Amino acid sequence: MRRVRITHGLALVSTGLLAGAFAYGAANLVPTFNAVPIGMRLDFHTALMKMNGITVQGAMAVSTLSSFALAALTRGRTRTVAASAGALTSTSFLITRFGNVPINSHIKQWAATTPPADHAEILHRWELFNDARTLTAAAAFVLLTALALSANRAPAPE
């Protein structure tokens, strides 16, 4: 029981941090990126990705592994919900790895040279990937939170 609670707590906190980081980026950084000149955006985006690489990947790894560990330690509905949360954070990783990261590589090159004529379309695609990974991480956090709330629900009076 204690191992399950610790694992659930780790999954909940790490997934909350992941969803929060993505949500902050979607709500605040992306509109800021769009409000400044393109050269400033590219420089800032490149610098931010250097810092985010370790923290975001770490949060994705811990949230995915701890959610799947919770699924392995439990049965029934709890197992299904925890595995679903793990699948959602895995999806966030895949979106990041195959959607955002390749575009980040282009952005890094553009910051050193000049962006191509279709840069606005490519940046919009990056934002769509960002929105998708934000939604999958937030959905995983909601599932783990609902699981915590249902586990802590007091029995109904008779």
Describe this structure in words.
This protein has helices at residues 2-35, 38-73, 76-112, 119-151. The two termini are 26 Å apart. The protein is built from four helices and no strands. With 158 residues, the protein is an all-alpha fold.
Tag the structure with descriptive keywords.
158 residues, mainly alpha, disordered C terminus
- For this structure, the quaternary state is single chain
Question: Percent of residues in helical segments?
Answer: over 70%
| Integer average pLDDT | 94
Strand content: under 5%
Topology (elements, then pairings):
Blueprint (H helix, E strand, L loop, with lengths): L1 H34 L2 H36 L2 H37 L6 H33 L7
Helix pairs in contact: 1-2, 1-4, 2-3, 3-4
Compact description:
The chain contains four helices and no strands.
